[in-house]
Amino acid sequence: MDDLFSQPPANPATRIATLREELERHNRLYYNEAQPEISDAEYDRLFRELEDLEQAHPDLADPNSPTQRVGGTPLEGFQQRQHLIPMLSIDDVFEEAEVGDFFKRLQKNLGADQIPVTIEPKIDGVAVTLIYRHGNLDYAATRGDGTRGDDITNNIRTIRSLPLTLGEDAPTLLEIRGEVYMPNAEFAKLNEQRDEEGLPTFANPRNATAGTLKQLNPKAVAARPLAVLAHGLGAHEGISFSNEDDFHALLDRCGIPRNQPIWHKDSLDGVLETIRELDTLRHGLPYQTDGAVIKVSSFDDRQALGATSRAPRWAAAFKYPPEQKPTLLRDISVQVGRTGILTPVAELEPVPLSGTTVARATLHNESFIQERDIRLGDTVLVHKAGEIIPEILSVVTAQRPAHSQPFSLHQHLGGKCPACAAPIERRENAVKKDGEDYLVLTWWCGNFECPAQAVTRMKHFAQRKALDLEGLGESVAIKLVESDLARSPLDLFSLSEEQLANLLLDPAKLQSGEESKPRRFGEKKASLLLASLEKARTEQPLAKWIFAMGIPHVGEASSKELARLHERLTDLADSDILKTIRNITDFEAEQRNISPRNKEIPPKDEAEKEERQARYNELKEQITALQDSLAAKQISPDVGPVASASVLDFFESEAGQHVLERLHTLGINPRSDNYAPDPTAASADLPLLGKTFVITGTLSAGRDEFKNLIEKRGGKVTGSVSKSTDFLLAGEGGGSKRDKAAKLGVTIIDEAAWHDLLGSAS
């Protein structure tokens, strides 16, 4: 291993090949075998070296390099792939008697009493096909209609447990059928995170997996915890198999993760016994299952049995019935999430369910409680969403106690945050659910100094996209809060070098598995952090400060746009621009309600109809006037009604007012570095003001560098070409965006023209 780090060969191609092979080996050891040989830091060193070499030698690029697992540029849409062999379904059976009928048909058609079969868990994931040619992943596709599916190769490459190369002895062609899934523990974390952010949670892991694979941005897919298990064989050349065991042996040799456990039986009694055994064991598997798959083991027998137009005759899937049980709702507790959202939790009379004892269940938000009319003291029907997360399915109203009252979270808490006693805020967020707009009622603690949110707010405050505070990671933030040295990010500006230097961090884990002694933060790191804080106070621009505040629905892009529209942070608190956007939204909502053509609330008579029409016309004029007042500012969609309302709500709240007071006391009022009081007139400092760019293809530097150059000069960068795009900056490649730009008449420039544009604009 020391040789790998310390003695790289002079030949870049050799070094790149060595690094790729070694990184793939470590991926298999870590993700498939849980036996890592090197630390994360050592892996990162190898990975960064490979990245640097590939950037320096683009002629040696390989789509199956380990560096491609982080995700590439967003796609315009999915291409279609014709399956080499149709991807058939498996017939479902729901009763043990139906399993008996299936096994008897096998005995009859094969003319034998004993039929060797395998039984394995039925993974509730998304079916995919993986095509390897000469040992390299060629492409991956979804099932689609069975004959054609979506090409999801870029998304599949982000799954680190899947080998992208199979070695020199791999078959000429190997098609693997499998399931992409989200591990149960990771799915629970993802839903918890979405709950805390006020986003609708996924119904089950399969729903989350399907939604992830439909993403056109592979980087978004890489951020989701997907995995894959192989379970079937498709087209193949250069190799033959006699039975399922031969196929499994190949998967193991190639390092392709496969479905396990596998049972081997040759009688109906053995099959039924295994199905019952699996029903107990499956609740302990790391992925969601909903049945047991029975397959004839011999490939010759499979060939003899054949298939119908939709399913093979040599396989069947037994589906387990979902388990639901009634229990008593004793109480509703409330958790304060790391972002301030209040999540109600049902405290239940413990009940055995799907292999575990359930005593608590998430209630998500007040909208969820209202929809199901859940009340304290109710008898509720509980199930496990996706057989993983306990959830209240419905209320047994016949057993509801007399004098029960509808639940109000605000009343339940006395209007105060359970973690800091600050007033809680009601928010209605518009989200998409089943393709339709849906209002979710949530309650939040907006206190910037709420202890339940302190660590997360500090981490967000310190990240590179925010104020870039060197040395302030999660472990430091945790200790600052535990030591009562900082309860909010703004407390960081009052810390001394002595306080930081003497901060004792948790022991580090050594490679031997032992722990070191508690670590002291030290004077050097303390000095660097204090220097970063001083730079944040005096030099960091407004956009970074807005992002660092962690205001709901305000991300990096909207922070930059808000900074373009406002000179100082204090200007945001009383922004006429944001108030105008909010007023337009309010007027439009009123206009929809009072419209005389509103079929849900029709006018009572002709007089009311005329009155409503007059108000409708009045609102229309007001909306037009307000829109005209904003038109010259060329406001990006990144600052829309939701972001505008969120910023105003934050600064109008008691917590927001306290933040402004603290900033004033600290002498902090960040200034924008791209504020444009007159957006219609480009200045020498902002020569690209009002211009929208899209970047594609391979350029002499990274896209982020060009993006930063454009934004510093007042321009905007978007991900897709549209009629509003002014320029497509195109390097080598970039075919689909180049074609679309040409079709829409968008000006296409190369790097030479880009420099000319920059010179003439300046």
Describe this structure as you would to a colleague.
It is a single chain. This protein is of the alpha+beta class and 762 residues long. It has six domains: 2-61, Helix hairpin bin (Helix Hairpins); 81-319, D-amino Acid Aminotransferase, Chain A, domain 1 (2-Layer Sandwich); 324-445, OB fold (Dihydrolipoamide Acetyltransferase, E2P); 451-540, DNA polymerase, domain 1; 545-666, no CATH class; 692-761, Rossmann fold, CATH 3.40.50.10190. Strands 12, 13, 14, 15, 16, 17 and 18 form a seven-stranded antiparallel beta sheet that branches. It has a five-stranded mixed beta sheet with strand order 2-11-10-3-9. Strands 5-4-7-8 form a four-stranded antiparallel beta sheet. Strand 13 and strand 14 (356-362) form a beta hairpin. It starts with a helix and ends with a helix. The model is unreliable at 509-513 (pLDDT under 50).
Quick recap of the structure?
By secondary structure, this protein is an alpha+beta fold. It has 27 helices and 24 strands. Strands 12, 13, 14, 15, 16, 17 and 18 form a seven-stranded antiparallel sheet that branches.
Keywords:
7-stranded antiparallel sheet; alpha+beta; D-amino Acid Aminotransferase, Chain A, domain 1; OB fold (Dihydrolipoamide Acetyltransferase, E2P); 24 strands; Helix Hairpins; 6 domains
Q: Mean of residue pLDDT?
A: 85
Tell me the number of helical segments per DSSP (H or I, 4 or more residues long).
27
Largest sheet data? 7 strands, antiparallel
Low-confidence blocks of residues: 509-513
CATH architectural label of the largest domain: 2-Layer Sandwich
User: Which CATH first-tier class of the largest domain would you pick?
Assistant: Alpha Beta
By CATH, the topology of the largest domain is D-amino Acid Aminotransferase, Chain A, domain 1
**What's the structural domain tally?**
6
Shape: globular
State which percent range the strand residues make up.
Answer: 15-25%
Q: From the alpha-carbon coordinates, what is the Rg to the nearest angstrom?
A: 30 Å
Structural class assignment? alpha+beta
Helix percent reads 25-40%
The CATH superfamily of the largest domain is known as: DNA ligase/mRNA capping enzyme
